[in-house]
Design goal:
The structure holds 2 protein chains of 2 kinds. By secondary structure, chain A is mainly β. Chain A has no helices and 11 strands. By secondary structure, chain B is mainly β. Helices cover 0% and strands 49% of the residues of chain B. The chains are: A mainly beta, B mainly beta.
Amino acid sequence: ELKVEQNPLFLSMQEGKNYTIYCNYSTTSDRLYWYRQDPGKSLESLFVLLSNGAVKQEGRLMASLDTKARLSTLHITAAVHDLSATYFCAVDRGSSGTYKYIFGTGTRLKVLA
Amino acid sequence: DTGVSQDPRHKITKRGQNVTFRCDPISEHNRLYWYRQTLGQGPEFLTYFQNEAQLEKSRLLSDRFSAERPKGSFSTLEIQRTEQGDSAMYLCASSPRGGSYEQYFGPGTRLTVT
């Protein structure tokens, strides 16, 4: 059974600091997705990582994928308050033919001014 | 392209009542997914449609749940005899044929069962 784990589950950090969120998954997959969720809201797509070694950056966020290690990272550079949200990684089950997502546990980020 | 829409956005119902949610995917997206998200958790897969065919259902989807996608366009998710444990956010997502398999999520329907 595919499992996706994130750490940390909670992260409180000061503005201006850097930090990394980790996403580990248990079986082979070449595609990984990062989403952001604000309280009471739906999921906003951040990054789509489609191959080993993929790296994508948008503003203060950078995501990477290592399919051999079954690991993705979401790096936050010089955090600002607006980045406060819950971040989810998801892996799709392409082998099932449905490409349904298996989500990680989520990382709740709070950036303190 | 107006994105995935869901209706209603909020639903409060009494235990034992039936509820129905609607999802309108992005036009020409042939893949449609339903997920359920409880407080503090990641979304969990419920069911998948490819066009009008329901190809996979999670074990989470008990006999009280049914989903349809007539004509391969909008989809409905019905919960019969609601229970307090059904309280959650129900998310719909759609995805185009092929490509990156990226799913585009709707705003969700928040169900509260009292």
